[in-house]
Design a protein that fits this description.
The chain has 296 residues and is α/β, with parallel strands linked by helices. It has helices at residues 14-18, 37-42, 63-66, 80-95, 98-102, 127-138, 166-172, 192-197, 215-223, 265-282; strands at residues 26-28, 49-51, 71-73, 119-123, 142-146, 159-161, 175-178, 203-206, 229-232, 252-254. The chain is built from ten helices and ten strands.
């Protein structure tokens, strides 16, 4: 697609990457654990663009990168349909009591809960969150969005709340789905106060990042009967220890951070990279540029 570009493919090891850094203008797909201030120093003066394949890019946002003129792009929305589908699958599994079937206790299944006319609160209505709201709306739920960007008159969202009104929104929720990026404002944003604000009949779903939730507070809320059931694709720490109390709870489903995978997400990821390489070479604005100050 871009014959004028000199594209070098390396192995995902520090030795291989360091051996090819001289004169590099763009760094695509560097594994998060291998990205560092030392790496940035080696490409200072030449590097102009970094692409993180996933939506979460907080580990790339070190002070040295934030203060530089290097552009950071990410894979936001690329995995949106998959993550939104997964969020609904966790919610449906719990409301239809499929966790009883998964644990071989189908005969003890309570009567399932109908989603129609229930209130769903989506915290973080960005690319993934908006796709989640569309699916919830299609199930007949009343959808409330919590986001710093107020976007009224979106068909799938009935009511908007700013982050400072989160407690009010949570008190109304029959289901809460977390879709926020990881920033200084969202780390541990769900703790004892937030879980106490929710109804004991509420369902809690997290498909963004584990560090957004205080795991200890979540365990306490479940032990105290403050939540009906919980579905997690992400945890903190990740993975949890084999004997972690969450694994022993009947009303908890944990999937191993697989929400973003499908038969199509790789194709979209590669197409984004192809387009951005072409735009980079031609000097055009890149797609999915991250605001390094905001963190998303």
């Amino acid at each position: 697609a871009v014959p004028s570009a000199d594209i070098v493919v390396t192995e995902d090891t520090a030795e291989s990457i360091n051996a090819h850094l001289e004169g590099v203008h763009a760094l695509i797909g560097c594994p998060r654990p291998l990205f560092s201030a030392e790496l940035l120093q080696k490409v200072k003066g030449t590097l102009r663009w970094i692409h993180a394949g996933g939506a979460g890019c907080d580990e790339f946002l070190i002070p040295e990168l934030i203060e530089s003129e290097v552009v950071l792009t990410n894979g936001r929305v690329i995995q949106g349909p998959e993550v939104a589908d997964h969020a609904l699958s966790l919610l449906l599994a719990l409301t239809r009591n499929l966790h009883y079937v998964l644990r071989g206790q189908a005969k003890d299944m309570p009567r399932p809960v109908e989603l129609r006319r229930k209130i769903a609160v989506v915290v973080g209505v960005g690319g993934v969150g908006m796709l989640v709201t569309e699916r919830l709306h299609a199930f007949g739920m009343r959808v409330f969005g919590v986001d710093a960007q107020y976007m009224p008159m979106i068909r799938a969202v009935d009511t908007w709340y700013l982050p400072e009104s989160l407690q009010e929104a949570l008190s109304l929720a029959d289901a809460v789905i977390l879709c926020v990026p990881v920033t200084d404002q969202t780390r541990k944003m769900f703790g004892e106060k937030e879980f106490s604000a929710m109804k004991p009949s509420a369902y809690f779903i997290n498909v963004c990042r584990g560090v957004v939730v205080d795991t200890g507070a979540l365990v306490d809320a479940l032990n105290q009967g403050k939540l009906q059931a919980v579905g997690l694709d992400v945890t903190d720490p990740e993975p949890l220890s084999a004997n972690h109390p969450l694994y022993g709870m009947m009303n908890v489903i944990i999937s191993p951070h697989r929400a973003g995978l499908s038969d199509n997400n790789r194709e979209r990821g590669f197409e984004l990279i192809r387009q951005n390489v072409e735009r980079f070479v031609k000097g055009l604005p890149l797609i999915n540029v991250v605001n390094k100050k905001l963190g998303y």
